[in-house]
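[step 3/7] inverse_fold.run input=structure_tokens len=382
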């Protein structure tokens, strides 16, 4: 392990881009080139620059810098975010160094390395979690992205172990229903999620998982679990750009599955969010779906939208999105179709059919749409 730990630790915190190295009160220095040059200098720079004049080289450098910033996501960061990233990065480095010190004297085979890293992460994170900087997770994600771009699987794996350990410690400090949502987000199998929900609703307790490990489940209310997932996904869907499609799909599945397990299923009165006016984008897409015969083509349409394509494509124009409102009713351009809001719309229309208030659409058709949307989300989520 000693041979593995040190090289990873030393390479893991790469020097941040130049834009991260300025104090928040300073402006980034710009590249100043002389306006006037004699013919020989201009000709030399033209030849060395591969056939570009000095002005063209300066313009290309600016474009390259902008492209690099856009690629690593730092182009829209504020000075406060840069400062938080640096402070968080220092803490991540400190954690890695302490883990390396714990592991460097141990002699073990490869089979024991993974367990040793997990134990070291638990020990180091456990005593530091309350003192974590707000930028710790931001720095972790930034480093994971860099490792992924560098195709450094060992570095990425080690950072992900730290991230999972931090999330696990933070989850234990949360209310029971929040802990359950976190557990469900890490449970790929539908049947396993249902079993977890049943046991949680029955009061929780200690259970043995499939791999023989002991799992302690808190007791929680199904309605609280559904509402927590709904609050989180509503926050994600209200943004012009969905930050994580996989996480969004998982939260929608958790909300729908928790609601289905309640007494009245999808039509349980506790599931009524009071949508007096249905969102235009979702209604238009649903109308498009029910106008066609259920089958492969309709399922493919659903999948594309759930993946953020076609009617579900993110709206990068934030101002336009704000004008459109949450449901896209008042603006000139409707908001994208979002998975959570779409299933809310389907459930609302289904309720109207069962109450006799809506005609012209069969309940079986909408139930097919609802079921296939959930199946598509399961494919996306895990």
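[step 3/7] decode complete -> sequence:
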């Amino acid at each position: 392990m000693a041979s593995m730990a040190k090289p990873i630790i030393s390479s893991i915190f790469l020097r941040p881009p130049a834009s991260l190295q300025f104090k928040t009160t300073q402006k980034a220095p710009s590249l100043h080139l002389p306006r006037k040059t004699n013919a020989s200098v201009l000709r030399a720079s033209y030849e060395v620059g591969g056939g570009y004049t000095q002005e063209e080289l300066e313009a290309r450098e600016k474009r390259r810098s902008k492209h690099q910033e856009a690629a690593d996501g730092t182009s829209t960061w504020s000075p406060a975010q840069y400062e938080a990233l640096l402070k968080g990065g220092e803490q991540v480095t400190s954690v890695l160094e302490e883990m390396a010190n714990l592991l460097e004297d141990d002699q073990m085979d490869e089979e024991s390395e993974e367990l040793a890293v997990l134990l070291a992460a638990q020990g180091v994170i456990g005593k530091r979690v309350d003192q974590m900087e707000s930028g710790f997770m931001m720095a972790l994600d930034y480093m994971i992205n860099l490792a992924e771009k560098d195709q450094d699987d060992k570095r990425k794996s080690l950072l992900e172990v730290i991230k999972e350990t931090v999330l696990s410690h933070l989850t234990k400090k949360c209310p029971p229903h929040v802990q359950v949502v976190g557990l469900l987000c890490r449970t790929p199998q539908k049947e396993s999620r249902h079993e977890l929900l049943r046991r949680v609703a029955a009061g929780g307790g200690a259970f043995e998982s499939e791999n023989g490990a002991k799992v302690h489940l808190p007791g929680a209310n199904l309605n609280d679990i559904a509402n927590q997932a709904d609050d989180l996904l509503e926050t994600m869907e209200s943004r012009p750009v969905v930050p994580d499609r996989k996480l969004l799909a998982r939260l929608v599945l958790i909300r729908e599955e928790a609601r289905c397990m309640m007494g009245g299923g999808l039509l349980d009165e506790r599931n009524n969010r009071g949508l007096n006016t249905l969102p235009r984008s979702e209604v238009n897409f649903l109308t498009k779906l029910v106008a066609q015969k259920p089958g492969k083509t309709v399922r493919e349409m659903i999948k594309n939208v759930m993946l953020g394509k076609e009617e579900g494509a993110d709206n990068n124009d934030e101002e336009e999105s704000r004008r459109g409102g949450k449901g896209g009713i008042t603006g000139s351009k409707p908001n994208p179709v979002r998975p959570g809001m779409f299933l809310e719309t389907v459930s609302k229309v289904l309720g109207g059919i069962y109450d006799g208030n809506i005609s012209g659409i069969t309940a079986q058709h909408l139930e097919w749409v609802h079921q296939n949307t959930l199946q598509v989300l399961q494919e996306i989520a895990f």
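[step 4/7] annotate
The two ends are 31 Å apart (CA to CA).
Residues 286 and 346 are 8 Å apart (CA to CA).
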